[in-house]
Design a protein that fits this description.
Blueprint: E1 5-8, E2 11-13, E3 21-22, E4 24-28, E5 31-36, H1 38-41, E6 50-53, E7 58-61, E8 63-68, H2 70-76, E9 80-81, H3 90-101, E10 110-115, H4 128-134, E11 140-144, E12 149-152, H5 154-159, E13 172-176, E14 182-188, H6 189-197, H7 202-218, E15 221-226, H8 232-243, E16 250-255, H9 261-271, E17 282-290, H10 320-332, E18 337-341, H11 344-360, E19 369-372, H12 378-387, E20 390-392, H13 397-409, H14 419-424, H15 442-451, H16 468-474, H17 477-482, E21 500-503, E22 520-525, E23 528-532, E24 537-538
Parallel strand pairs: 1-6, 2-7, 8-15, 9-10, 10-11, 15-16, 16-17, 17-18, 18-19, 19-20
Antiparallel strand pairs: 1-4, 2-3, 4-5, 6-24, 7-21, 11-12, 12-14, 13-14, 21-22, 22-23
Helix pairs in contact: 2-7, 9-10, 10-11, 11-12, 15-16
């Protein structure tokens, strides 16, 4: 049969079991129909075949981001970005917020995202007084880059019914000054509650997910593991948007939410729906709970105190028995399970729960996961291997946050997002950006996994550096395995889905220190070219 598309003269990185490199491949419909040499592909070329000369450029399996927040990324594109180049200070941010207030009706939310106090000239958060000076007619919410901390104005506190007598929610802090007055700073679950109140309209959410999908495809991402947003509404919205093709990427959706994740998990588990329900475009993923906080906050739960604060061991959302009560039941009913666990104390608690669940209800191919697995000490890695856990580290984190990690965790950076250790110890791990917490570009993730340097050039746990091919596998085959999809995607092999990405150069020949400067030239999803940065050479 003649092919619809044939790629020739390329560096076809198959990511098969032998890490084979081919020079050409053929696509028929939505499947890969042949992989091999230019000569072998001549058989598949007909009068209607679109033949594309790659001119030595890399062609890879479509990237799989195994931990990303599509909805959160999308809605952030509708808000003020604190990561904009011109925002170098709190003063700059306040100017942008004031401009926003002048353009929207009174009563509507003013939102900002990506705030990082360490990147501001003042090295501080905006104050509630400064936000009130912008407007008390609009509720204002400035969310930190980690999405675990925010600062709000008085109007937002009123809408949340938070006053000076309000008590801290479980797993969170409503910060007060020495006089007992609210500062407007909300930490962990207090922030998550406010995020629910500051939710978006359905029309805004639909606009947001379309933007996110387009951005991901332009970055070569063809599949995502959606890590949660607003609970049941998120699930309904994503399914509708996929049906209408406003979302084009494939979704493996974790059953979890940013606020009260245990309630949502219990509801879905009791409904009878289980991991794997769905199709190649949208599938139900693992049941997920939050167990601790942000690595940059810092609010992660650690076994030893922070290097920057000897009295601080972080925040836990749940007790160990509470985690087991929810996820042990999900495991028993056939779910893949996972947790957000950054600190070694949180990781250890979860591993205890998994061990107990497997002892009570053994299951061979469970593929239970740990999202982030931030500080993975050797003893914890050994337990991951014994239990068959798949950690989902975040390769790009050291680039944006590495300098902060050294300040807060000292030598523990040598075990953070421990890709080298995982490979050497026979632990299969998959890569996720956690966007919008940091950049969603898989090429940046691959770059940092190889080089382990921060934006400033500082070495961040370089003992965890891996090879280019190993890093590619984090974002392809390993991601497919983490969602039980290795038979249909994650590598370039005959019969698999034609989800592909073309780069503008050879990723295997470019200087490893320049990987982040590579560009996606074309993204093919389901056999269809959905994006190309420049005109491809067609013969």
């Amino acid at each position: 049969m003649k092919a619809d598309i044939v790629f020739i003269n390329g560096e076809v990185i198959t990511v098969d079991q032998k890490n084979s490199i081919a020079e050409a491949l053929a696509v028929k419909g939505n499947r890969i129909s042949a992989v091999g040499t230019n000569q072998e592909m001549k058989f598949f070329i007909g009068e209607e075949t679109n033949v594309i000369d790659l001119q030595g450029k890399s062609l890879l399996p479509g990237f799989i981001d195994s931990h990303i927040h599509l909805i959160l990324y999308g809605v952030n594109q509708l808000a003020v970005s604190c990561k904009a180049e011109h925002i170098e200070s709190v003063k700059d941010l306040l100017i942008d917020l004031k401009k926003k207030a002048s353009t929207i009706p009174k009563g509507e939310w003013i939102r900002a995202w990506g705030f990082n106090e360490t990147a501001m000239k003042e090295k501080r958060y905006p104050t509630i007084t400064e936000l009130d000076a912008i407007s008390t007619d609009h509720p204002i919410m400035v969310t930190r880059t980690c999405s675990h901390i925010s600062v709000v104005n008085s109007r937002a506190l009123e809408l949340a019914r938070i006053d000076e007598n309000s008590e801290n929610p479980k797993g969170g802090i409503i910060e007060k000054d020495k006089a007992g007055r609210n500062t407007g700073k909300l930490i962990e679950t207090a922030n998550m509650i406010m995020a629910d109140i500051a939710s978006y309209s359905e029309s805004e959410l639909l606009k947001a997910v379309k933007i996110a999908s387009e951005h991901f495809i332009a970055a070569g991402i063809t599949s995502i593991h959606e890590a949660g947003a607003y609970g049941p509404e998120s699930f309904r919205l994503m399914q509708q948007a996929i049906k209408s093709k406003d979302i084009r990427v494939r979704i493996y959706a974790m059953v979890g939410s940013l606020n009260n994740s245990h309630e949502f998990v219990n509801k879905v588990v009791s409904s009878g729906i289980v991991t794997g329900t769905g199709d190649e475009r949208f599938k139900i993923g693992p049941a997920k709970l939050f167990t601790d906080g942000s690595s940059t906050g810092p609010t992660i739960a650690t076994r030893e105190p922070y290097s920057s604060d000897p009295g601080n061991f972080g925040i836990l959302y749940y007790k160990e028995e509470e985690i087991y009560q929810v996820l042990g039941q999900a495991h028993k009913k056939g779910y893949q399970i996972t947790v957000h666990a950054q600190g070694d104390r949180a990781i250890e608690m979860y591993l205890n729960c998994v061990e107990k669940a497997l002892n009570e209800t053994p299951r061979k191919d469970h593929r239970h996961r740990i999202e982030h697995a931030g500080i993975s000490a050797p003893d914890l890695q050994q337990r991951m291997k014994e239990l068959g856990i798949i950690p989902i580290p975040n390769p790009p984190f050291p680039y944006e946050f590495g300098d902060i990690y050294i300040e807060h965790y000292g030598n523990r950076v040598n075990r953070m997002y421990a890709a080298r250790d995982y490979i050497d110890n026979g632990i299969l791990a998959a890569g996720g950006s956690d966007a919008p917490i940091t950049d969603h570009d898989p090429l940046l993730g691959i770059h940092v996994a190889v080089n382990r340097r921060s934006r400033s050039g500082m070495k961040i746990g370089t003992v965890q550096s891996i090879s280019v091919m190993e890093a590619i596998k984090l974002y392809t085959w390993n991601g497919a395995f983490a969602s039980f999809d290795e038979d249909v995607k994650g590598s370039i092999e005959v019969g698999k889905l034609a989800d592909l990405v073309v780069l503008n150069d050879s990723i295997l020949k470019v200087d490893p220190q320049n990987i982040k400067d590579l560009k996606v030239e074309s993204t093919i999803l389901n056999g269809e070219i959905l994006y190309h940065r420049e005109t491809l050479v067609e013969i």
